Amino acid sequence: MDAINSITNANAEAVLFYLFAGMAAVSALLLVLSRNIVRTAVCLLFTLMGVAGLYFLLHAEFIAAVQLVVYAGGTLILIIFGVMLTSKSPFSKFQPSAAEVAIALSVGTVLLGSLILALHSFPFPTAEADVQGKYPLVSLGQALLGDYLIPFEIASVLLLVVMIGAAYLAKGRRHEEENFKFHRTPASKTMREWT
Amino acid sequence: MQSMLAMTVTTIGLHHYLVLGAFLFVCGLMTMLLKRNAIGILMGVELVLNAANVNLVSFNYFSYAGKAGAPALNGQIFAIFVIVLAAAEAAVALAIFLNFYNNFTTIDVERASNLKG
Amino acid sequence: MIITSIPIAADVPSFSLQQLIQDQLGLQRGPVLTLVYGVTLCAAIFLPAVSLVAMFSIWWERKVAGHIQARPGPNRVGPIGLLQSLADGLKLILKEDLIPASADQFLFRLAPYLAFAPAFAVFLALPFGPSFCFEPMLNVGVFWILAMLSVEVMGVILAGWSSNNKWSIYGAMREACQMVSYEIPLGISILVAIMAAGTLNMVELGHMQSGGIHTWLIYRNPIVFLAFFVFFVASLASNKRAPFDLPESESELVAGFHTEYSGLRFSFFFFAEYAAMFVVGGIQTALFLGGWNDPFGIIGYFNHSLNATYAADPSIENAIPILLLNCVAAGVFVTKAMSIVFVQMWIRWTVPRPRIDQVLYACVKVLLPMSMLLLLLGAIWQLVVPEHAGIPWVDYNPWDFAAWVQTPGGLASLITQILLTLVGLTGFAAVNGWVVYAILTGRGHKQRLTDPSPIDEGTENLVKA
After folding, report:
1. Which of C30, C157, C170 is facing A80, going by the closest CB pair?
2. Contact A134/C10, CB-based, under 8 Å?
3. Alpha-carbon distance B12 to C392, whole Å?
4. From CA C68, how far away is CA C343, in angstroms rounded?
5. Contacts of C106 in chain A (CB under 8 A)
6. Model ipTM?
7. C108: closest CA among C167, C157, C151, C51?
8. Which one of A181, C6, C375, C376 has the fewest CB atoms closer than 10 angstroms to its CB?
């Protein structure tokens, strides 16, 4: 029993961390390598879900739920809509040239190597993990409406502006000579076909 | 040495999360460099923002406690704002890409060369 | 400072099934053991439970549809057709696995699981009993449910897209539009209830409503009362249930986004739909209708006293009554959720289907302003009208009205809650009475097979019902 106890106590977080981090990292890699844009979006979904799992491990449950609601359930849907409205055929592929691939790979590896070296050589001060109160959500809410009230309000105004701006931008332009006909942009034509 | 390696692998510390954040960042950067589809580039941007968020939340978890008795939540609040702003930016970016598609009938950024030369 | 948190009892003694098992086996409580326990629970209990719920719902839907349409429904396979779902499942498993050649192979195979997994994940957060919740530490239980309902959209979009079929894409796009639009009134009406409750933890919500029918959250505020109906309508749209079932409207789109799916893959979508119906019913039960509590507060009273006994003396003899009580509580929860599912089915076979622009009109121009107004009014109500905070049976006696009036601000909250309870009970009794009257007067009603001819009213065309 003691052996089992020592194993189970030590490795739980490691198992879950490697699971979620592996899912996020592998999906990110597939995202880079995939050539079909819809598969790229699906890889992004799995990356977001892996990162949400990591947030759960870090005891940031609210952030994890926000990530799933806003990112995976909102932004990603928006991206997929954009993908479907702007693709002529479902499986169109764009190939970058070999020189571009070589440059990108070299930049990527150099950057990754230097980042990891820098991380390992810097002694980050770590105390024991945060002691979470019984109602950490209450403190989050109080901070958002207390210390961070101004950024909160600015963010809401920004979202309003973005909503209006994006709706106006995406509407398309009316051609002056066709007063009665609706705007004939390719994207809105597709959208009209679907609904 | 053996047990040190085992300890590093089995005890998850700040370094593990930071390495993952760096890896996600580099993947996002490579996506931005390698994709010709504008929406693919947008997905790279989302990856970079996620990497930043991972860093923020893990620093929040492993840092000193803030005021006495109250948990420090600055990293989490920063992460909330980053998520909100990323969503807003994705909306505007997609509106711009839709306009681009309407004008050029293609989403390939290589074709956006009207101002070239 | 205006914003004050609602005081809730600091430590409600709770019985942990996982702790009991680990004590009996001599293991130490740790994260991996929690993981193993969770996985075993999912595999052994939750997955069969979800499948049973889905199978029962499918049979019940067909029976309800039949009786509303004046026909018997399935009645051949098994007693009153109970094994019909099993026969259907068997048939679906034995079908050929067809994948269109021009479909995206990987995404086509992935989509049913992406649609089913979130509906199943929500089951983990539903509070079936005071100690039958998966892990009571999920402080963001309600938000997790909202998150999973958002991820469900992805599965449907991918299913429609990867089929490479015009009808599938139409269905998927309509469905995505509809589900994403209706998430906003859904979330805001949940917010109204959470504002009145003060916590996102599902188990605490159940404890707060354990004093009897007048402590249920729907009767706390008239605003929450209205938010329940907004939530109900939005949840119908979120589940792609009629009258919002355009994504799978059989008369228009062949079969919508699951046109190309056959056999076992199709059954995944079917299961996902009925699991989501139960889940939404479960959310409404847990948030508004008292969760696992009965209308008299008996379960809450015994839960409190039995937990106190167990805390004093943790042993198997003291644990068994708690387990039995939790089973009763789970039964109450499932009954309430299933009655909401019944209302959803009832509406499906009664109300005609609107167009997509009417559906979106209902969301953006009716439900969205209504929910925002309710949010504002709910906040103002809580600012102005005092409430009686605390957990029934732990902080106060919910049936001792005299003492309730004595507490500061008690009279206003008591009057509100009692009045709303009476309104709710009257409405419930009225609807039930109407249904019973319809059933009773419908029996023996002679049905005609042909139109009555004006000259001779012969009796040979009349058939006894």
Report:
1. C157
2. yes
3. 42
4. 12
5. 39
6. 0.89
7. C157
8. A181
Residue C279's identity, in one-letter code, is V
Of B23, B31, B86, the CB nearest to A112: B23
Q: Any residues with CB less than 8 A from the CB of B116 and at least 6 apart, and which?
A: none
| Phi, psi torsion values for A184, nearest 5 degrees | -100, 50
Which are the contacts of C350, defined by CB distance < 8 A and separation ≥ 6?
C68
- Closest residue to A72, CB basis, from C106, C151, C176: C151
Spell out which residues of chain B touch residue A25, defining contact as CB-CB under 8 Å.
Answer: 20, 23-24, 27
DSSP C41-63: HIIIIIHHHHHHHHHHHHHHHHH
Nearest to A194 among C34, C151, C170 (CB): C170
Place of tokens 């449910």: C145
Helices C264-287, C222-238: crossing angle, 10 deg rounding: 180
Report chain A's terminal Cα–Cα distance, integer Å.
Answer: 62
How would DSSP label each residue in B18-75?
A: HHHHHHHHHHHHHHHHH--BHHHHHHHHHHHHHHHHHHHHHHHHHS---STTSPP-HH
Query: Taking each helix axis from N to C terminus, what angle separates C316-348 and C298-312, rounded to the nearest 10 degrees?
Result: 150
- A chain contacts of residue B111, beta-carbon cutoff 8 Å: none
Q: One digit per residue, pLDDT tens: chain C, 465 residues?
A: 233 344 444 455 566 776 676 666 666 556 666 667 777 777 788 888 888 888 899 999 998 888 888 787 888 888 888 888 888 888 888 888 888 888 888 899 999 999 888 988 888 788 888 877 765 556 778 888 889 988 888 888 888 888 888 778 877 887 888 888 999 999 999 999 998 888 888 888 888 888 888 889 999 889 999 999 999 999 998 887 778 877 666 555 566 777 788 888 888 888 888 888 999 999 999 999 988 898 888 888 888 888 888 877 777 787 788 888 889 999 999 999 999 999 999 998 888 888 888 888 999 999 999 999 999 999 999 888 887 777 888 777 888 888 888 877 788 888 888 999 999 999 999 999 988 888 788 766 665 556 666 655 556 666 655
Q: How far apart are CA C417 and CA C414, in angstroms?
A: 5
Cβ-based contacts of B5 with chain A (< 8 Å): none
Distance CA B107, CA B94 (A): 11
Q: Which of C30, C35, C144 sits opposite A65 (nearest CB)?
A: C144
Residues 47-106 of B with CB under 8 A from A: 47, 50, 53-54, 57-58, 60-65, 69-73, 76-77, 79-81, 83-92, 94-99, 101-102, 105-106
Contacts of A109 (CB under 8 A, 6+ apart): none
Residues 6+ apart with CB under 8 A from B53: A51, A63, A67, B79, B82, B83
Around Cβ B58, how many Cβ atoms within 10 Å? 25
- CB distance A4–C27 less than 8 Å? yes
Asked if A90's CB is within 8 angstroms of C164's CB, the reply is: yes
Looking at residue A74, the DSSP 8-state letter turns out to be I
- Count the helices and strands in chain B (H runs, E runs): 4, 0
Helices B38-62/B74-104 angle, 10° precision:
180
User: For residues C199 and C182, what is the distance between their CA atoms, to the nearest angstrom?
Assistant: 23
Instruction: State whether the Cα torsion A115-A117-A118-A119 is positive or negative.
Output: positive
Collect all residues of chain A within an 8 Å Cβ-Cβ radius of residue C356: 195
Structure tokens at C88: 């259907």
Across the interface, whether the CB atoms of A36 and C104 are under 8 A apart is answered yes
Backbone angles phi, psi at A93, to 5 degrees: -120, 140
Strand ranges, E, within C54-180: none
**Chain A residues with CB-CB distance to C162 below 8 A:** 38
